[in-house]
Write a structure and sequence with these properties.
This protein has 104 residues and is α+β, with helices and mostly antiparallel strands. The chain is built from three helices and five strands; from the N terminus they run H-H-E-E-E-E-E-H.
Length: 104
């Protein structure tokens, strides 16, 4: 995987190299996994990937905010947002990678 952003194409290519299925099959597999995750979140379920983290839907209540351009008060409607919480394993991996990068 190259660049600062991992794309669907990067994921498909990584699966292709690791598993050896056709690129088309890998693309369909990645798309299906992402679709299943999206459907679970739409239903309000959490998606837990062991060793990676948890995606979950949270409800935000209505509140008063301000228009950043004019400073006028503005009502913000209640909404649902998706949050991500990294697992301890992922946090440790990222921390170790950052520490190794600073030392080297």
């Amino acid at each position: 995987m190259k660049g600062a952003t991992v794309t669907r194409a990067d994921l498909c290519e990584a699966v292709h190299e690791e598993v050896g299925l056709t690129r088309q099959d890998c693309s369909e597999m990645v798309e299906r996994v992402l679709e299943l995750m999206a459907l679970a979140l739409e239903r309000g379920e959490q998606v837990k990937l062991s060793g990676f983290g948890v995606f979950q839907v949270r409800a935000k209540r209505a509140r008063m905010g301000r228009n950043p351009k004019t400073g006028e008060p503005a009502a913000i409607e209640p909404r649902r947002v998706i949050g991500f919480r990294a697992s301890q394993v992922m946090k440790a991996r990222v921390d170790a990678a950052l520490s190794a990068g600073k030392a080297g």
